[in-house]
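User: Okay, second chain of the day. Same drill as before: sequence in, structure tokens out.
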Amino acid sequence: MNIHTLLRLTTILTLGLIVSAPGTSRADTIYNAIAIVDLRITGFSNMQTSKPDDVVITGSGTVVDNDSIFDGHALAEQFAESRVIEHDTHERGFNEGLSQAAIATGNTTLGTAVSFAFTQGILAINNLSLTEGYTVNFSADYSYLVDANAINSNLEFASATSEISLESRLLGSLLDLTVSADSDFAGGVFSDNAVLPFSIFVEPGESEVLTLSVHAAGSTIAVAPVPEPSTLALFATGIIGTSIFQWRKNTRKQDLRRRRFSQKDKSSFTHHH
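Assistant: Same drill. Structure tokens below.
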């Protein structure tokens, strides 16, 4: 799957989320994270496409976890796929292998949205020959895309991360890729599509294990505007000033009443005598 297909898929997902958002025509914050890998066997020793009978290759794929959480005027979606590319259901051969995909997308007008997808696949290579070693050639075709944008950086935030990891028991790390974007650093779209060819030699009687992990995650938040601290301070000062003024006003009224009553008592006492 090339990067143009990824862009189209992301656009469809994002538009679907925005259109389905109740009471909203557009989202203020958007995130998209996509990671896709096809790991295929491209040949064997001496550039042969037919698998040696002594080499047994098996595979498995698992969706480790995927979920989405959102509240308010927000939506989130995720997609995870982990499958074995096969022609023979018992073992892998030429142009077979693993296919992994993880997608997280969401948007927020007011609220929060979080989604993630995590997949993992394993290819196990066993050389049953006790006298001959074999080379197995591979090609890892991987694509990724991250996109995080927010209209108002003071009230909104969005982030997206895509991760791809390919580990070999014999060779160690073959691919370790983490790409992130967030709206605090201008956001934008970061994407690429590349092919990683590599070969593994399996000694007689030995085995090899390839572990492919793909992860996509994103989050966004948008909050309602609130008065700035200076505004709140002025507002609080106004309330305090008004309260003091009212207290003084009431106090003066009470003092004036006391004086009147006092003068009335004195005049009454003088008149009586």
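The CA atoms of residues 133 and 204 lie 5 Å apart.

User: Thanks, on to the next one.
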